[in-house]
From TrEMBL, chain A:
The FHA domain, residue ranges: 97-147
Gene3D superfamilies, per database record: 2.60.200.20
Annotated keywords: Phosphoprotein
Protein name as annotated: PSer/pThr/pTyr-binding forkhead associated (FHA) protein
From TrEMBL, chain B:
Record GO biological process: cell division
UniProt keyword list: Cell cycle, Cell division, Cell shape, Membrane, Transmembrane, Transmembrane helix
Source species, domain of life: Bacteria
Classification lineage: Bacteria, Bacillati, Actinomycetota, Actinomycetes, Kitasatosporales
InterPro entries reported in the protein's UniProt record: FtsW/RodA (IPR001182)
PANTHER family in the record: CELL CYCLE PROTEIN (PTHR30474), PEPTIDOGLYCAN GLYCOSYLTRANSFERASE RODA (PTHR30474:SF3)
Keyword Cell cycle: yes
Protein name, per record: Cell division protein FtsW (Lipid II flippase)
Length: 170, 483
């Protein structure tokens, strides 16, 4: 193999290797600056583009909830839908779920309005999930009413504790 | 490349959704790139050594491509929102390692002393096992928080793994200085590589529970927060264990790795600089103390301080009864003769390192044949793996996941530092392997498992939050009522 070919391959390999690194950094960059702000054009064109823009802005359909309410009550997971823990899910497998600021809670709420043992969620004999307030200072709310007794949870109904909202989903 | 929703809507001033929901297509494109680069290198080695494209090019390329494809499909199915870069970066490192091992297999000198020959095939099998473990982690570990339940079992497991090489009959008799291997049938396993992951699980679970006590119960003294005596207990225990590893297994690298990982996680959990100061002081004291009486460690320190003297002693024979090694000097010469742009694949003479040329010292081969430019790229790729790990930790919502991701990426970074620093003469040489690059089954398999866990955490962290349902009045629930 000629000297020239090998030199070209040697430099070519280094170039390709660095290209990989640069492309990888580009991927990270697009991850960091994930929002894309596009420039406003002329009014006529803007009107034409309205539809895709609106589609983009619309929230994703809540498929799970819509389908779940029709069927029988058998929630499979608990979802935190608001607050610091937004997006956390806990699978429901018949175990009692405790909520509060205490470290050994199933869901540890880092929330000034939560008590250390705030509430618990457990299944009764029929498998219906029940929420019970454990004598918290600021109370546990199911929809808009403050809980006084253990109450069955309808699917998708928001349970509010301080700034955190959780709900049961299919 | 980035899929679905993010189609650019020109001429309107809109703010698009944050990123694409899943970056799987980006990952696939990067993965193809990461397979093509090693195939190019492989062809390059063949052309440089034999003047022809190597016969195994197709099977080798297909093998690597197949493994990468399987890994990608598993991620697509079981961790759809995972970080798009971790898998391609690991694949590229693994592929480059395979090429370098194959290149050293061609050396007559290494074949004659039994270090090389057919090792690339073995490494490909280890890689397949690693990818299999990676898939198992993603398929069966649905939620990384499950690991939290096994906090103390992990501690016991890690200690058992660490102590296995000392068990008589089980510890392998291949004494290359350090006692870190165990013999199972005809295989030798390095349990320390797996202990790294298990120990990270223990530290994460333990620190998550105890971090408040460690962070808040302290006295201020000379600008540093001094922890209470009883809170010092665990760090002392871990320090003792790492010192014991150093004394009984004479393995400086593993000891440094575990203690360093603990200090990093402690710092992240408590945000107290004092822990880093303590950690550095304690590891320095421990290392100096052990080095003062352990002959194996002393030789390593000697070779670090004056590699040329070791080289001369090894060449001319010495009368002091200690085995001297010319490896350290040969590695430095390899880096030196590589220069800025390297000699090109297959045209260096890194086989002169002889023993461990394809494992501990594989970085020297890269240094000689790819030069400073290549080494920098490789170190950057390692850096990107660590960066993605730390990014995952930042994005993770649960404290356990945060600590685990930091611990694993910290351990990965420390291992790269300890090996690269050792080979380049920055710190004394230790018997550890460069993750993914070096020849060795345990290392490759364990590191694929590590990447698997990081991908699982990043999938949980990057999963879009479920859309909020209609919310009741916020104020109502946030008022303290007199009762």
């Amino acid at each position: 193999m000629s000297e020239l070919t090998l030199t070209v391959m040697r430099l070519g390999f280094l170039a390709v290797l660095w290209l990989f690194v640069i492309v990888a950094v580009q991927v990270i960059r697009s991850d960091l600056f994930g929002t894309r702000v596009t420039q406003r054009g002329s009014r006529r064109e803007a009107g034409r583009q309205q539809q895709p823009a609106r589609q983009q802005a619309a929230p994703p359909p809540q498929r799970q909830q819509a389908g779940g309410r029709q069927r029988r009550n058998a929630p499979s997971k608990l979802v935190v839908s608001e607050g610091i823990l937004t997006g956390t899910t806990v699978a429901l497998q018949g175990q009692t779920i405790t909520l509060g600021r205490a470290h050994d809670s199933t869901i540890v709420l880092d929330d000034d309005y939560a008590s250390s043992r705030h509430a618990r969620i457990y299944p009764d004999r029929d498998g219906q999930w029940i929420v019970e307030d454990l004598g918290s200072t600021n109370g546990t709310y199911l929809d808009r009413s403050r809980l006084t007794t253990p109450t069955p949870i309808p699917l998708g109904a928001p349970i509010r504790i301080g700034k955190t909202v959780i709900e049961l989903r299919k | 490349m980035s899929s679905t929703t993010n189609q650019p809507t020109h001429h309107t001033s809109t703010i698009g959704a944050i990123g694409a929901p899943s970056r799987r297509n980006t990952e696939l494109a990067m993965l193809v790139f990461a397979v093509v680069i090693p195939v190019f290198a492989y062809a390059n080695v063949g052309l440089a050594i034999d003047d022809q494209v190597p016969a195994g090019l197709l099977s080798y390329g297909l093998g690597l491509g197949l493994l990468a494809g399987v890994a990608h499909l598993v991620v697509r199915k079981f961790a759809p929102y995972a970080d798009p870069l971790l898998l391609p970066l690991a694949t590229l490192l693994n592929g480059l390692g395979l090429v370098a091992i194959w290149r050293l297999d061609q050396s007559k000198l290494l074949q004659s002393i039994g270090v090389a020959g057919g090792k690339a095939t073995n490494q490909l099998i280890y890689t397949a096992l690693g990818i299999a473990l990676f898939a198992v982690v993603l398929v069966f570990l649905k939620d990384h928080r499950v690991l939290q339940r096994y906090t103390y079992i992990s501690m016991v497991g890690a200690l058992v793994l660490l102590l296995l090489p000392l068990v008589p009959g089980l510890g392998a008799n291949i004494t290359y200085g350090a006692k870190i291997w165990i013999q199972v049938g005809s295989f030798t396993i390095q349990p320390g590589e797996f202990a790294k992951i298990v120990l990270a699980i223990f530290f994460a679970g333990y620190l998550m529970v105890k971090r408040d006590a460690l962070a808040l119960a302290s006295r201020r003294f000379m600008g540093l927060y001094l922890p209470r005596g009883r809170d010092l207990g665990p760090i002392i225990v871990v320090w003792m264990i790492s010192i014991l590893i150093l004394v009984f297994e004479t393995d400086l690298g593993t000891s440094l790795l575990f203690f360093g990982m603990f200090v990093i996680m402690l710092y992240v959990a408590t945000e107290r600089t004092s822990w880093i100061v303590f950690g550095l002081l304690m590891s320095a004291a421990g290392a100096v103390g052990v080095a003062s009486f352990e002959p194996h460690v002393q030789t390593r320190v000697q070779a670090w301080l004056d590699p040329m003297r070791e080289y001369t002693l090894s060449r001319n024979g010495s009368s002091d009864g200690i085995v001297h090694s010319e490896q350290a000097m040969q590695a430095l010469w390899a880096f030196g003769s590589g220069g800025t742009l390297g000699t090109g694949w297959g045209q260096g003479h890194s086989e002169l390192i002889r023993f461990a040329a394809n494992s501990d010292f594989i970085l020297a081969t890269f240094g000689e044949e790819l030069g400073l430019a290549g080494i920098m790229a490789i170190l950057l790729i390692y850096g990107l793996v660590v960066e993605r790990g730390v990014r995952t930790a930042l994005a993770a919502r649960d404290p356990f996941g945060k600590l685990l991701a930091v611990g694993l990426s910290g351990a990965f970074a420390l291992q790269v530092f300890v090996v690269a620093g050792g080979v380049m003469g920055l710190i004394p040489l230790t018997g550890m392997t460069m993750p993914f690059l070096a020849y060795g089954g345990s290392s490759v398999i364990a590191n694929w498992a590590l990447i698997g866990i990081l991908i699982r955490i990043s999938d949980t962290a990057r999963r879009p939050a479920p859309a909020p349902a209609g919310n009741p009045d916020a104020e109502m629930t946030q008022v303290v009522r007199p009762s």
